[in-house]
Amino acid sequence: MKHFLVLLFFVVSITIQANSNSFFAFSMSTTNQQDRLEFSIFPNPLKDQRLFIQSAGDQEKHIEIYNVLGEKKYEIITTNESILLGELPSGIYIFKLEQNGMKGLKRLVIP
Q1: pLDDT digit string (tens) for 26-57?
Q2: Can you give the pLDDT of all 111 residues of the chain as single tens digits?
Q3: Where are the domains of the chain?
Q4: Comparing C-alpha atoms, which of 108, 57, 111, 100 is closest to residue 83?
Q5: Which of 53, 65, 60 is nearest to 99 (CA)?
Q6: Distance (Å) of CA 105 to CA 32, 62, 93, 108
Q7: For residues 59 and 79, is the Cβ–Cβ distance under 8 A?
Q8: Which helix (H) or strand (E) is 42 found in, with range?
Q9: Of the CATH numbers 3.50.50.60, 3.40.50.11810, 3.40.50.300, 2.60.40.3080, which one belongs to the domain with range 2-110?
Q10: How many helices (H) does the chain have, and how many strands (E)?
C-alpha cells in the first residue's frame, strides 16, 4: 500500500507539473527508441555518497537530478564515472543522463 501511494503521488505530481516544467516535457518526448541512452547507476539505493554511472563510451555526461516534484536538485557535466551526492536528502529522485546526443532516465533512491 505504501508503494502504491508513493507511485500515485508521483503520477499526480507529474500531471500537475507537466505544463510548466521542461523536465517533464523532456520525459514525455523520450519515446523514440533510437535516441534513448542505455546506462546504469549503482549502488541504488545509494549506500554512501558516491554514485557510479556506467554507460557506453567515455564522452562527456550531462547529469541532472530531479525530486518527485520536478525540481532540479543537482546538475553537473563530467567525464568521470562517479559523482558525489552528499548534499541530497533522503528521497526518490529522477536521474537524467544525456551523453553523445542521447538521453535516458533512471529512478534513484537515497535512503
Answers
A1: 444 444 666 899 999 999 999 999 999 999 88
A2: 555 444 445 544 444 444 344 554 444 444 466 689 999 999 999 999 999 999 988 899 999 999 999 999 999 999 999 999 988 999 999 999 999 999 999 999 999
A3: 2-110
A4: 108
A5: 60
A6: 13, 12, 10, 10
A7: yes
A8: strand 39-42
A9: 2.60.40.3080
A10: 2, 7
CA–CA gap between residue 102 and residue 49 (Å, rounded): 26
* CA angle (23, 62, 58) in 5-degree steps: 145
Three cell numbers written together for 20: 510548466
Query: Quick one: cell of 7?
Result: 507511485
C-alpha cell of residue 101: 546526443
